[in-house]
From TrEMBL:
It is an enzyme of class 6 (ligase). Residues 105-310 form the ATP-grasp domain. Binds 2 magnesium or manganese ions per subunit. This is D-alanine--D-alanine ligase. Its cofactor is Mn(2+); Mg(2+). Pfam families: Dala_Dala_lig_C, Dala_Dala_lig_N. The active site is at 17, 152, 288. The lineage of its organism: Bacteria, Bacillati, Actinomycetota, Actinomycetes, Streptosporangiales. Pathway: Cell wall biogenesis; peptidoglycan biosynthesis. It comes from Thermocatellispora tengchongensis.
Length: 318
């Protein structure tokens, strides 16, 4: 009998996305084929404390199912690089760029990838400006106010007035010292998954998020029992191909590896596509659209996990 591969599944951490990470990690732990893998959960607490010191003699590969700062922004990836342990997903640079909405958009714009109009500013600029309107006057209502380095819709506000803008910025500053404000557009929300290495990544069929109200907030994503996506999305063939092509360009723009999910806004009236963001460690909960998009593309969940682990070994040369 072939010896099973020891997989350390990292979860938790000090991010506000701690609970989402635990849900994702449990789904991975439940689905890893036991004839191939020997999984062990490594739960990092909310203070960032590890229950065990990872070493090559304890784990053959690490699956960091962590979302948000600390786990998805290059910090954990850098630690694993120093340990010399293969790990699933993007490396340090791609993780850092993909976590920061400002740096991400700079990478997209450098590659002529369309994004929505936006502005950004630091907490210092917000506190010291005499007229807050000056910081956002290039945009129109409604606007979306977001922490630059947070995910899972945490800290996001849709605002339609200066009073709401000020409250939204204060909420965003509770999570990050940098804030991005995006122009709101009336559009469908389309997602597309990436799977593969630097040279020949593949893309999934696009899916469409079902948005209750004005936007898909944390409660709708993770707490509501309602369906959150239609997969595959019903799109004109040209639009579906554009989504797939832009997804690959975005993945390459940040130097992605392993996996990512690209999120788009599609204006049906104009036919325009805007790349909203790319997530280097998308959710892996049973409701999450990344795995469901790949299942609809012919890659069942256990096979998806196996391919991701194989990619981790391929990058390390193991």
């Amino acid at each position: 009998m072939t010896e099973r591969v020891r997989v350390a599944v990292l979860a938790g951490g000090p991010s506000a996305e701690h609970e989402v990470s635990l849900q994702s990690a449990q789904a991975v732990l439940d689905a890893l084929p036991r004839d191939l893998y020997e999984p062990v959960a490594v739960i990092i607490d909310r203070q960032g404390r590890w229950p065990v010191e990872l070493r090559r003699d304890l784990a053959d590969v690490v699956f960091p199912v962590m979302h948000g700062p600390f786990g998805e922004d290059g910090v954990v990836q850098g630690h694993l690089e120093t340990l010399g342990i293969p790990y699933v997903g993007c490396g340090v640079l791609a993780s850092a760029v993909g976590m920061n909405k400002v740096a991400m958009r700079r990478a997209f714009l450098a590659e002529d990838i369309p994004v929505t109009p936006h502005v950004w500013f630091t907490e210092h600029e917000w506190r010291t400006t005499t007229d807050h309107w000056d910081l956002v006057k290039s945009l129109d209502w409604p606007m979306y106010v977001k922490p630059a380095g947070m995910g899972s819709s945490i800290g996001i506000s849709r605002v339609t007035s200066m009073e709401e803008l000020r409250a939204g910025v204060e909420l965003a500053l509770a999570y990050d010292r940098m804030v991005i404000v995006e122009q709101g557009v009336t559009a469908r929300e389309i997602v597309c998954g990436v799977l593969g290495g630097h040279d020949t990544p593949e893309v999934s069929v696009p899916g469409e998020l079902i948005v209750p109200g004005d936007w898909l907030d944390y409660e709708a994503k993770y707490l509501s029992p309602a369906e959150i996506a239609t997969i595959p999305a019903v799109l004109p063939e040209r639009v579906a191909e554009d989504v797939r092509e832009l997804t690959l360009r975005a993945f390459r723009a940040i130097g992605g590896y392993g996996l990512a999910r690209a999120d788009f806004l599609y204006e049906e009236d104009t036919g325009r596509l805007y790349l909203l963001e790319i997530n280097t460690m998308p959710g892996f909960t049973p409701r999450s659209v990344y795995a469901r998009a790949w299942a609809a593309s012919g890659v069942p969940y256990p096979d998806l996990l196996r391919r991701l682990i194989d990619l981790a070994f391929a990058r390390s040369g193991a």
